[in-house]
């Protein structure tokens, strides 16, 4: 068992970990190490072979692997060491990291700072409490994506998709392109949780029906899936008897939400938000544990990788600053502004802003429902700080509101509340 | 094909495995067959995992005798086989004033059955032990000897121990007929024929049917399904003991119990169904569990639910086990109608049936028995030093396959290479816990499938979730259209 010292350990070499590592190195961190459990860096982008990545960051439409490659190439140029096939087992509050790999066995690393970039996982069937049999043929959309895109195997031929998350929509098209029949995409909410462009390009373009306010209420088949029963739901999301539709299918793909993977964070004592299931962070993306930062989907689930990268650059720079003690966070509660979710707003990140941070901060959140002709309103100390109007705000698309350092410094209260109001 | 053996055990659940293991102490040729594709595919894989203290069964019944006798064997047995077991204790709570007299009855019954340490607790005493309990209870019965065990892991260990000592196992064998034949019995399955001198019926849900075939009796079996919620380990610590509700005129309640692995279990329902293989869950059943469990645990939350499942109990109309020689059918033995407390009873049932069979066949003890190699501690539970040492000895410990339950490649390969090894995703899951965590195999299942294919020397497309027909994949990409019969 070896104990090595490293200034910065980054957990995960997906888009978040890569961007954080690049930013940290570019900000002058010499001693850093990225730990990745898979055999190659790139994270979930490796299996996202569809295009549409990088429109914001590169003004180009890249595939997932192409997008990842840009960061991997840059990390190589910067000689950032990435240890693959390495699983982190624990992180402590004093930033001791234990990990294992086939090549190096069990290792203990003492870090001065840690960036959590573990990503997220898909909600499984159990989280939905869907009744029925427990046969083969029920997969999360991401698992199916891995089988098709990385391993070259089809999970089945007649498919129903439960949930209209982006991975589910992408997989609807992917399965169809591979010759499978995609019978339906079923969404319990009155709106899709996926991006509108994916509804158009993955369902509408391929004549795959989207059943809003419907859900799977029974699963049939002893060994392999034989069919599912789909029912309409009422306003409280309970199935309406008599609305059952039976689909004969051999595959059910679940795309019912993503959950930040924070087991390591919890072990380190990092405080999590019950709304985002990610860490509570300041504008520098530092968690409740000093020297431990979080970014990307482990912090909150993003829609677009471009924003994951943007956020993770911030985390990398902040970790570098922490290490160089350029800007030790100012002490004292009076310098802190709490960020609160008001009506219509869920899970704003960051949850805390240092009044004197002196730089632009992006407040990101999800609308709690669909709002048409409405405005995001920021208020603090009884004053309206900012109003941002839009034709539509929807839970499927994260909202990002930039606040400049000057705007932050000028805030008159201790709580900044975000809400969505319908236009008068 | 025709197979022959001295002894044929029908059923590889916890009872069949226990009998097989006890008989492997004797010189005899023993074969176990099961309709499932693995050990423990029936009620053994889907029950509450509780070693009952023994206060529930009617004094003088076989259930009472075997429960108490079996439960006493658990600590040493699980220690010997390296199976997780914990004497967590149990409470029976009185939700109504009237339940207090039931608690007294259970206490008396338990004392008569020989259960030690039973005590009636006041509301305050019970709440001090389990702070999440409904504060409106009127009292509780404490049974400190109640235990938690992983039923299928115990069955796997018993089967492995038996197999190391010569017992053979054959799966996917659905019995279609059994009759007395020259010098013993003839048993026919869908594809094969078995001849044996002694037949032991441990057929669980089918045990009455098999009994009737051999005797011409008309025992009636009721298939009683029990559904469950299983919560993630993040819910561990909410209750540290099994909490039963008092059986009352409102019906049999549900339990809220930790599992030996630290999950939290809610259930079961009790529904009489026609098909013993129908282990589906239903909305009505799941709703009922929550409604009842809230009386034990008012703050109940299913946020941490990771799966729902159900198992089917083999309930005989006569409401007791049938254990021993089959009347009027020399050479046939049985453990029929084994439902709760069947798991608790299994070690004692195994010993008794093996002794009867050994006497009947005049079996001599096996001179040298291969000792059961104690399995290594799961990587998940190892200390840092143990983890470092494990990786040094076998680098495959360095590859974590299941991230939720922290199961390594070394452990998955070992599970496939066990004497009665895993042959499917579920087989690996039950032996190693890979896929039993909060992502339910979302990340590890493709990797487990790849290891299985490598170990079994087959293609990924041949890997099954469980039984035949439960193939994971339909074929390579690019072949879909021409293979699709409906296209």
Topology:
The complex is a heterodimer of chains A (424) and B (487).
Chain A: E1 2-11, H1 15-26, E2 32-35, E3 51-53, H2 55-58, E4 62-63, H3 64-77, E5 82-83, E6 86-91, E7 96-101, E8 105-116, E9 120-122, H4 125-128, E10 138-140, H5 141-151, E11 153-154, E12 158-162, H6 166-177, E13 181-187, H7 196-203, E14 210-212, E15 214-220, E16 227-232, E17 245-247, E18 251-254, E19 258-260, H8 263-267, E20 292-294, H9 305-324, E21 336-341, E22 345-349, E23 352-354, E24 361-367, E25 371-380, E26 383-393, E27 399-403, H10 405-409, E28 415-422
Parallel strand pairs in A: 1-2, 1-8, 2-5, 8-20, 10-18, 12-13, 12-18, 13-14, 21-28
Antiparallel strand pairs in A: 3-4, 6-7, 7-8, 9-19, 15-16, 16-17, 21-23, 22-24, 24-27, 25-26, 25-28
Helix pairs in contact in A: 1-3, 1-9, 5-6, 6-7
Chain B: E1 2-10, H1 14-23, E2 30-33, E3 50-51, H2 62-81, E4 85-86, E5 90-94, H3 99-113, E6 119-121, H4 123-129, E7 139-143, E8 147-149, H5 151-164, E9 168-170, E10 175-181, E11 184-189, E12 193-201, H6 207-215, E13 221-231, E14 242-245, E15 255-258, E16 264-267, E17 271-273, H7 283-296, E18 305-316, E19 322-325, E20 332-336, H8 342-361, H9 384-393, E21 400-402, E22 407-408, H10 409-417, H11 425-432, H12 445-456, E23 475-476, H13 480-483
Parallel strand pairs in B: 1-2, 1-12, 2-9, 5-14, 12-20
Antiparallel strand pairs in B: 3-8, 4-8, 5-7, 6-7, 10-11, 11-12, 13-16, 13-17, 13-18, 15-16, 19-20, 21-22
Helix pairs in contact in B: 1-5, 1-8, 2-8, 10-11, 10-12
């Amino acid at each position: 068992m070896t104990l090595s010292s490293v200034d910065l350990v980054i957990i995960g070499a997906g888009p978040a970990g890569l961007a954080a590592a690049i930013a940290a190195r570019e900000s002058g961190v010499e001693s850093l190490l990225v730990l990745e459990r898979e055999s190659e860096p790139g994270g979930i982008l490796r299996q996202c072979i569809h295009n549409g990545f990088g429109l914001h960051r590169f003004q180009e439409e890249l595939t997932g692997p192409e997008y990842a490659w840009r960061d991997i190439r840059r990390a190589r140029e910067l000689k950032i060491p990435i240890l693959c096939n390495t699983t982190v087992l624990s992180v402590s509050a004093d930033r001791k990291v234990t990990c294992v790999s086939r090549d190096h066995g069990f290792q203990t690393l003492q870090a001065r700072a840690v960036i959590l970039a573990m990503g997220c996982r898909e909600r499984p069937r159990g989280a939905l409490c869907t009744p029925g049999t427990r046969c083969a043929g029920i997969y999360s959309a991401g698992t199916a994506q891995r089988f098709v895109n990385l391993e070259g195997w089809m999970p089945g031929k007649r498919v129903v998709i439960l949930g209209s998350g982006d991975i589910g929509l992408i997989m609807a098209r992917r399965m169809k392109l591979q010759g499978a029949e995609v019978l339906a995409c079923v969404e319990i909410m009155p709106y899709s949780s996926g991006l509108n462009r994916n509804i158009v390009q993955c369902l509408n373009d391929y004549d795959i029906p989207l059943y809003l306010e419907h859900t799977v209420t029974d699963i049939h088949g002893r060994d392999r899936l034989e069919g599912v029963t789909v029912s309409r739901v009422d306003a409280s999301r309970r199935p309406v008897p008599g609305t059952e539709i039976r689909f004969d299918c051999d595959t059910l793909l679940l795309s019912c939400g993503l959950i930040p993977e924070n087991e390591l964070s919890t072990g380190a004592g990092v405080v999590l938000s019950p709304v985002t299931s990610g860490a509570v962070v300041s504008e520098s993306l530092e968690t409740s544990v000093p020297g431990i930062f979080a970014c990307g989907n482990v912090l909150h689930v993003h829609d677009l990788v471009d924003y994951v990268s943007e956020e993770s650059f911030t985390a990398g720079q902040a970790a570098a600053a922490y290490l160089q003690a350029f800007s030790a966070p100012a002490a004292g509660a009076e310098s802190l502004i709490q960020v609160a979710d008001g009506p219509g707003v869920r899970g704003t990140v960051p949850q805390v802003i240092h009044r004197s941070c002196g730089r632009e901060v992006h407040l990101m959140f999800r609308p709690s429902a669909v709002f048409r002709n409405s405005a995001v309103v920021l208020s603090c100390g009884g004053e309206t700080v900012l109003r941002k109007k839009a034709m539509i705000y929807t839970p499927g698309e994260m909202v990002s509101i930039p606040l400049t350092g000057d705007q932050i410094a000028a805030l008159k209260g201790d709580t900044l509340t975000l809400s969505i109001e319908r236009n008068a | 094909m025709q197979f022959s053996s001295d002894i044929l055990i029908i059923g590889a659940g916890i009872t069949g495995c226990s009998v097989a293991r006890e008989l492997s102490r004797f010189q005899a040729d023993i074969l176990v067959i099961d309709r499932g594709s693995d050990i423990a595919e029936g009620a053994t894989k889907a029950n509450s995992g509780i070693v009952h203290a023994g206060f529930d069964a009617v004094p003088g019944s076989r259930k009472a005798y075997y429960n108490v006798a079996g439960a006493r064997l658990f600590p040493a047995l699980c220690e010997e086989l390296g199976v997780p077991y914990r004497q967590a204790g149990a409470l029976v709570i009185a939700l109504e004033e009237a339940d207090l007299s039931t608690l007294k009855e259970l206490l008396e019954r338990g004392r008569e059955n020989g259960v030690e340490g039973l005590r009636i607790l006041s509301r305050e005493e019970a709440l001090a032990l389990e702070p999440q309990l409904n504060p409106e209870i009127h009292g509780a019965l404490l049974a400190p000897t109640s235990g938690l065990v992983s039923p299928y892991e115990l069955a796997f260990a018993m089967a492995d121990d038996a197999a190391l000592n010569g017992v053979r196992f054959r799966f996917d064998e659905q019995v279609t007929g059994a009759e007395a034949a020259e010098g013993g019995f003839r048993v026919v399955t869908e594809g094969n024929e078995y001849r044996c001198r002694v037949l032991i019926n441990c057929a669980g849900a089918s045990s009455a049917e098999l009994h009737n075939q051999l005797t011409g009796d008309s025992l009636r079996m009721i298939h009683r399904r029990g559904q469950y919620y299983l919560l993630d380990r993040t819910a561990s610590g909410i209750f540290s003991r099994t909490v039963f509700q008092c059986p009352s005129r409102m019906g049999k309640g549900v339990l809220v119990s930790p599992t030996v692995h630290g999950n939290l279990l809610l259930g079961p329902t009790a529904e009489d169904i026609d098909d013993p293989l129908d282990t589906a869950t239903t909305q009505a059943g799941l709703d009922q569990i929550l409604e009842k469990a809230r009386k034990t645990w008012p703050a109940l939350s299913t946020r941490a639910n990771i799966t729902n499942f159900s198992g089917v109990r083999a309930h005989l109309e006569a409401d007791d086990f049938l254990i021993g020689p089959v009347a009027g059918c020399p050479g046939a033995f049985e453990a029929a109608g084994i439902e709760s407390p069947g798991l608790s009873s299994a070690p004692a049932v195994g010993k008794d049936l093996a002794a009867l069979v050994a006497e009947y066949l005049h079996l001599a003890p096996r001179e040298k028995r291969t000792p059961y190699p104690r399995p290594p501690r799961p990587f998940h539970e190892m200390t840092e030093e143990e983890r470092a040492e494990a990786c040094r000895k076998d680098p495959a410990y360095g590859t974590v396959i299941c991230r939720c339950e922290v199961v390594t490649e070394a452990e998955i390969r070992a599970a496939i290479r066990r004497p009665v090894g895993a042959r499917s995703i579920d087989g690996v899951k039950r032996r190693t816990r890979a896929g039993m965590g909060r992502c339910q195999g979302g990340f590890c299942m493709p990797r487990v499938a790849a290891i299985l294919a490598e170990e079994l020397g087959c293609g990924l497309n041949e890997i099954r979730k469980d039984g035949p027909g439960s193939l994971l994949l339909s074929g390579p990409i690019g072949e879909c259209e021409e293979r699709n019969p409906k296209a």
